[in-house]
Amino acid sequence: MKYGEEEILNLLSNWLSEKLFAHSLRVRETAKAMAERFGVNTEKAALAGLLHDYGKGIKEAEMLSEARKLGISINCVEERDPYLLHAPVGAKLISLSLKIKDHEIINAVSRHTVGEPSMSKLDMIIYIADMIEPARSFPGLEKIRDLAGENLMESFELAYAHTLTYLVNKRKFIHPKSFEVWNWIQLSKAKEEKLKKVSD
User: Fold this and answer.
1) Does the domain at residues 5-199 carry the CATH identifier 1.10.3210.10?
2) Radius of gyration for the chain, computed over Cα atoms and rounded to the nearest angstrom
């Protein structure tokens, strides 16, 4: 059985805490607005935004066992910080439990925390929307918000840099994939600059 939006909202309101559900609603609206701006399917963006934290319905103490049950490979950083698994766990669960089979939506949910080299526009939108939704507040946020209305890749770069800086400053573990994502961002920028020079 495939669930409609109203049914998903009802399920989500029971599955997540009140605070997380409210956050998910804000991310949905932020992602939808960004999708309109950057020519991405707004329905997919809205649904991915709504479901991006579906994995947080699993208690963090149970995240490792749930990931193993779902066949998700776990590295040494995720073993020490199971919170990072809520994205891939959520992606698997929305496919299995909610019967959502759209790979773009599943990927966007799976990639909204650590990311992935070669992020799609939808992937980047969900990552950014999660960070800039109206209830968020932290130093440097307004610059990310401003760029989110102008340049998707630059906004994603700044958002990702903020995350990496936070992790370093807090002396936290950094997911090994984060280095691949950061290098992909820089390579993408270099290619774009090269194309601009050729066209000029």
Assistant:
1) yes
2) 17
